[in-house]
Design brief:
Its main location: membrane. The chain is of the alpha+beta class and 587 residues long. It has 17 helices and 26 strands. Among the domains are: 206 residues, no CATH class; 55 residues, Pdz3 Domain (Roll), CATH 2.30.42.10; 93 residues, Pdz3 Domain.
């Protein structure tokens, strides 16, 4: 990813140097202007169209006033959100979705969340967003009798990225605050309007014409696992296991519990393959107590052959310590339980054991076995602060059993044992006897308002849509991002309903509406940030002038300048921290 960004930046820099040199020597025509990587192509054509569109002035002023009210609310929210995010990053650099600077760029293939497969839809969304945004400014200029010097196309290097409208600077400066403010808010208003239209169409007839193919949808097979060896991989849909029909991941898990080691698997394409199950370590903490790495295959536990997850669980049911043998003949003996990277100093467990800051494996809690982290978490959720329970744990390889008075988990209100850095699985390893990574096809469709949708509020739907491209980091337990109906995931869906006659075209339409709405919503939010040169910065200035003009003071202009400068610099600093802070602070 970093090398891709380097090539892109190198190309942009080369273009900027060459284009600037050509402009300085007069080789470019007057209608082409260069400012670094930005090239603008100017024209005066189209003014007559704007004059015609601006005729119902009363309507457009009412439209802009409504949009201004929405913009002011979003501006306040943007200010609070940016400050909150910046402070959170200072305290916890890993808490943000944008962990690398390139993730702030809306460039498919450079931004890790935006794949090249949806580059056409993203570019279209940017074009629509910038055209309606700048068109809104131009339209309100004519409504408020502000002349337009020129219009045209804006490019980043040679890539068209939208349109622009250039008002007459003197007339804009001399216009009253009301017309100026409406003009600056018009672009954001249009972006939000396009968002509403795109998402209304997406939520309605388009997503209503998309269904989920029955079965277990495979996003990929974990390397070295039985499923991968059997040829089950990305895009496969499992419909049957050992003669049992499966429609979801729960059905698959139940079928595997009752199945033999060798299991026939039916796929939606009509083929059947055979999976020879074996117990593979799919994830492992570095230098953990067990000492096994990802990809190791466990063949026996305490001398008894074991090839399945159910066998693994049964073998550990009453044993706090077990010996594991792998396919290369090596053995390892370790405590089997919930692993945490450290005992919280001054916490309940530390107070009971006299140990703090050390790694720990909790093997029994309140007399019950805790063979993995999930078991410990489930037991803790049933406790109350102040309860005293007996805890068996291994610290530094030594067993200790103590009576621990639980603290309070401030997030859930349940009991707290006092450990941090809990790792999933058993003693820091996760095992799988099949090896697929299921793709949440039904969940993504429900988030778009399709089959199985929760039918929540409009705000909930907007939040879900905003986070879908970052689902793997924004939603616990989800390992995939949703970029649209593209690539292998198209095989998990079928065209049905009122637009089913379009076939695959319904997926193209859904992708276009999703990204046009998503891009316009983000453009609107971003331009509402109260800092220059964004629209929010200009609206902040005119709004501050309106308030300051009513104050009984002499230096109104100085106070306006001080307020707008302070807010703008604060916002710029916070935005820079949001973009560059995670990589700098965590380094």
């Amino acid at each position: 990813m970093a090398s891709t960004l380097l090539w892109v930046l190198s190309g942009v820099l080369l273009y900027s140097v060459v284009a600037t040199a050509l402009s300085a020597r007069g080789f470019l025509p007057d209608w082409a202007r260069v400012s670094g990587p930005i090239t603008t192509l100017h024209t005066e054509r189209g003014k007559a169209v704007l004059d015609w569109l601006a005729r119902p002035k009363r309507f457009w002023r009412a439209w802009a006033n409504v949009g201004l009210g929405i913009t002011l609310v979003v501006m306040v929210g943007s200010f609070v959100l940016v400050i909150f995010s910046a402070v959170t990053i200072l305290n916890r650099p890993s808490s943000t979705i944008i962990t690398e600077p390139q993730d702030a760029l809306v460039i498919p293939g450079v931004n890790q969340f935006l794949p090249l497969s949806v580059a056409p839809e993203i570019v279209l969304g940017l074009l629509v967003g910038l055209v309606v945004h700048e068109g809104g400014h131009g339209l309100l200029c004519r409504v408020e009798d502000i002349s337009i010097s020129s219009m045209g196309l804006a490019l980043i290097t040679l890539i068209p990225m939208g349109a622009f409208v250039e008002p007459d600077e003197e007339e804009q400066r001399n216009a009253e605050r009301g017309p100026q403010t409406r003009m600056f808010a018009a672009g954001v208003t249009n972006n939000f309007a396009i968002t509403v239209i795109a998402f209304a169409l997406l939520f309605g007839p388009v997503v209503g014409s998309i269904g989920v193919v029955p079965g277990v949808h495979v996003g990929g097979a974990l390397p070295g696992t039985p499923a991968a060896d059997a040829g089950i991989g990305e895009g496969s849909v499992i419909t049957g296991v050992a003669g049992q029909n499966v429609t979801n991941a729960s059905d698959l898990d139940r079928a595997l519990v009752d199945a033999n080691r060798t299991v026939p698997v039916s796929l939606s394409n009509g083929t059947t393959t055979t999976v020879e199950r074996s117990l593979v370590v799919t994830s492992a903490i570095k230098d953990g107590p067990i000492g096994l790495g990802t990809g190791a295959t466990i063949t026996a536990i305490n001398g008894s052959p074991t090839h399945t997850e159910s066998g693994f669980t049964a073998a550990l049911e009453n044993r706090s310590v077990a010996t594991l043998r792998t396919d290369n003949g090596s053995t390892t003996t370790a405590p089997m339980g919930a692993y945490a990277s450290r005992i919280t100093p001054d916490g309940p467990l530390a107070n009971a054991t006299g140990e703090g800051g050390e790694p720990v494996v909790v093997t029994r809690f309140a007399g019950e076995r805790t063979p993995n982290t999930s078991a410990l978490s489930d037991m803790l959720s049933q406790t109350n602060p102040g309860e005293t329970v007996r805890v068996e744990a291994f610290v530094g390889g030594e067993r200790t059993t103590q009576r621990v008075t639980l603290g309070e988990n401030t997030q859930t209100g349940s009991g707290l044992v006092g450990v941090t850095g809990l790792q999933s699985g058993t003693t820091g390893i996760a095992v799988d006897d099949f090896g697929i990574d299921a793709y949440p096809a039904a969940g993504f469709l429900a988030a778009l308002g399709g089959e199985g949708g929760a039918g929540g509020s409009a705000l909930t739907s907007v939040i879900l849509l905003l986070t879908l491209p970052f689902a793997s980091v924004a939603a616990p337990g989800v390992s995939y991002n949703f970029a649209g109906f593209v690539g292998a995931n198209v095989d998990f869906y079928t065209a049905t309903g009122p637009l089913g006659f379009l076939g695959g075209g319904v997926f193209v339409l859904a992708n276009v509406l999703f990204w046009v709405g998503w891009i316009n919503l983000n453009l609107g939010f971003f331009n509402c940030v109260p800092t220059f040169p964004l629209d929010g910065g200009h609206i902040l200035r005119t709004s501050t002038e309106a308030v300051v003009s009513r104050l009984p003071i002499g230096s109104r202009r100085s106070l306006t300048g001080a307020v707008t400068t302070a807010v703008s610099l604060t916002m710029l600093a916070a935005l820079m921290l949001m973009i560059f802070g995670p990589s700098l602070l965590s380094g």
